TrEMBL record:
This is Endonuclease-reverse transcriptase. GO terms for molecular function: endonuclease activity. The keyword Nuclease applies. Keywords: Endonuclease, Hydrolase, Nuclease. It comes from the Eukaryota.
Length: 160
């Protein structure tokens, strides 16, 4: 794909679409179950910018800001919002099923908690992204499919 993505004879829009079709699905495989920390988010954003810089043939030593690169590519940062949207859709699906996956996803399993700082749960990250306040509000919103889809659409519009 390197020859296609870095070819100057192909428009940037077409190369961007090729990136979305062939590379991003591989990158985002299984992202519905990820918990995205700030560190992971920075790495994903850096990866997205690396792809764009490679497509535009901008050297990493060239002193161009990320905003300049995004302007040249005629795009914005979309990767994190795509991942969050996938997570939210998957989470709504799992919560409406009310099976074992529901218990695992919400983290309401019986037993002792491990020592140390507790890991961030998927629901907490989604609640922050959806601006739902508490995670219980997000869980309740999944019961009503229209309300849940509206919350996801509003969060995608606002971005990350």
């Amino acid at each position: 794909m390197k020859t296609v993505l870095t070819n100057k004879n192909i428009s940037i829009r077409t190369r961007r679409r090729a990136l979305e079709c062939y590379i991003e699905p591989i990158l985002m495989y299984g992202c519905e179950a990820w918990t995205i920390s700030k560190q992971t988010q920075k790495k994903l954003e850096a990866t997205e910018m690396w792809f764009l810089r490679r497509m535009l043939r901008i050297s990493w030593t060239a002193k161009k800001t990320n905003d300049t690169v995004l302007e040249e590519a005629h795009t914005t940062r979309l990767l994190i919002s795509k991942i969050r949207k996938r997570q939210a859709t998957f989470f709504g699906h799992v919560m409406r099923r009310e099976k074992l996956e529901n218990l695992v996803t919400t983290g309401m399993l019986e037993g002792k908690r491990s020592r140390g700082k507790q890991r961030e749960k998927l629901i907490e990250g989604l609640a922050n992204w959806l601006k739902a306040g508490k995670s219980l509000e997000a869980i309740e919103a999944t019961k009503d499919r229209k309300k849940w889809r509206t919350m996801i659409a509003n969060a995608v519009k606002q971005g990350t």
